[in-house]
Specification:
The protein is built from six helices and no strands. Helix 1 crosses helix 2 and helix 2 packs across helix 3.
Length: about 90
Amino acid sequence: MANQLDPMDIKQIITLHLDGDSNRKIGKTLGISRNTVNAYMKLFKACEYSLQELLEFETGSLVELFSSHTTIKNPKFDKLLGYFEKVYHARD
């Protein structure tokens, strides 16, 4: 999850999941990857709040709760990403 999701996207993921949509369909509906949806679903299950409670959170509270999980800030990740960019350029 290299990009941070908007709190409204987080609420939409929860709402669509509660409506019975699959993670694949949620991703397609919101224009995000299924893996991003999967990652957030794992985060939701790991937190101490139910999905219904999370829906009631204000925007600021959601950002506080999930901001550290939404953006990868890791030197090893950056180095690995740089490596893959070089590989992709070499293929072209």
